[in-house]
Design a protein that fits this description.
The complex is a heterodimer of chains A (69) and B (213). By secondary structure, chain A is mostly helical. Chain A has 3 helices and no strands. The longest helix of chain A has 27 residues, at 25-51. Among the domains of chain B are: 69-100, no CATH class; 117-166; 167-204, no CATH class. Chain B has 10 helices and no strands. The N and C termini of chain B lie far apart (78 Å). In chain B, α7 (126-143) crosses α8 (145-166) and α9 (169-177) crosses α10 (192-212). With 213 residues, chain B is mostly helical. Classes of the chains: A mainly alpha (69), B mainly alpha (213).
Chain lengths: 69, 213
């Protein structure tokens, strides 16, 4: 997972698998926990940029679609 | 529609006869002369029977209206242009009573119509719709503040519940802004992709909790 879009895709796949019963709920919980950590780390970076009053340039938040544009 | 009062009926008939006479003087005289030469009795006048039952009257009114719709509309328009303002000022209280009665009778219908109108016209003229909403809110608040407060509390509670269950953008953004390590972020700093990732995470957490229970 290099950026948010990939994380989203992964999470949506986990969600559908969990609904179908292909993934155990304990595994899904672990994955969700991990995703939460990643989101929180991105949030901390955003807070930092907001504090120093700069426009954030975080690679994790830059999706491939935007890069191509 | 023929008058119930005989005197009025007679007066009306006289007037219309006079008008008819003035219009068709020559033809009537010619016919009378013809009848005189042929030694014929004069024709019997056609007398309309007064309408007795309510249904008869309604049927007559409908028929008359269908025939003379445009003429009648023009007439009423002209009357309103001439006397409408004065009449409204004179009958202010009566009009209020009528309006109240109508609103009490057709409350649901009126509410539905206004909702439909707002839905239709919001895209066309959102400012006007917002303005009317604001005015109605003010009116309602001034009328019964206790009830207004109660209703607004209920509405807020309902909308909050909906926001949480449906994981709306504003709710997820609020969650992300809360409990910051350095500062509490404002919602504008958070990109939409992050919001969607957070939403998916919450969805998974909720489903896991459901399955555990």
């Amino acid at each position: 997972m290099k950026n948010v879009t990939e994380l989203r895709e992964q999470l949506s796949q986990v969600f559908t698998d969990l609904r179908n019963g292909a993934v155990k709920h304990s595994d899904a919980a672990e994955l969700a926990n991990l995703a939460g950590k990643m989101i929180n780390s991105a949030k901390v970076q955003l807070e930092y940029y907001a504090l120093i009053k700069e426009t954030p340039s975080i690679n994790f938040l830059k999706s491939e679609d935007r890069r191509t544009k | 529609m023929p008058y119930k009062d005989l005197k009025k009926r007679r007066d009306c008939a006289k007037k219309s006869n006079k008008r008819y006479w003035e219009k068709n003087k020559e033809t009537i005289n010619a016919k009378a002369r013809e009848r005189y030469h042929l030694n014929k009795p004069p024709p019997k006048p056609k007398i309309k029977k007064p309408l007795q039952t309510r249904e008869e009257k309604r049927a007559y009114q409908r028929e008359y209206y269908a025939k003379n719709r445009e003429k009648l509309l023009e007439k009423t328009k002209a009357w309103h242009a001439k006397h409408g303002k004065q009449w409204r000022e004179e009958n202010k209280e009566r009009l209020k009573e009528w309006r109240k009665e109508y609103q009490a009778k057709n409350r649901e219908k009126i509410n539905q119509q206004s909702k439909e109108w707002a839905k239709k016209n919001f895209d066309k003229n959102p400012e006007e719709v917002r303005k009317t909403r604001r005015l109605k809110k003010k009116e309602y608040k001034a009328k019964d503040p206790k009830r207004y407060n109660e209703m607004s509390r209920r509405w807020n509670h309902k909308s909050q519940k909906k926001m949480v269950t449906e994981l709306k953008d504003c709710y997820v953004r609020r969650l992300l802004c809360k409990h910051g390590v350095v500062i509490d972020l404002s919602a504008k700093y958070i990109p939409q992709d992050l919001v969607e990732a957070k939403r998916l995470e919450i969805k998974i957490r909720r489903m896991v909790n459901e399955k555990r229970n």
